[in-house]
Write a structure and sequence with these properties.
Helix content: under 10%
Number of helices: 1
Strand content: 25-35%
Number of domains: 1
Oligomer: single chain
Radius of gyration: 17 Å
Shape: flat
Length: 97
């Protein structure tokens, strides 16, 4: 499974054999014309496996719409699940103060 940048000019994917996150420039103005893939970083650098060998369709990463930031799912050590709380529009809570 892959994902693209918000501008539609890049595709990101995991090379599961090499455990690398890759990016390829694409031109879709007339036909689909992919450029040469480039490695962004490796799973070893993050000390994780970027794809699961038994489930290639589950992404363990996501890309910000600008294509410059990534979030990567990492396993929790010790077997305890941890909670992540995401707060949207948090700045509005401080506008009247």
């Amino acid at each position: 499974m892959d994902t693209g940048s918000g501008q539609g000019d890049e595709l990101f994917y995991v090379d599961a054999i090499e455990n690398e996150l890759m990016v390829v420039d694409v031109d879709t103005r007339s036909d689909f014309l992919p450029g040469k893939p480039k490695m962004l970083f490796t799973g070893e650098q993050l000390q994780i496996q970027l794809s699961h060998q038994s489930d290639f369709f589950t992404r363990r990463y996501d890309v910000a719409s600008d294509g410059q930031r990534f979030v990567v799912v990492q396993p929790v050590s010790g077997g305890m699940a941890q909670t992540i709380t995401g707060v949207e529009n948090w700045i509005k809570a401080f506008e009247d103060k």
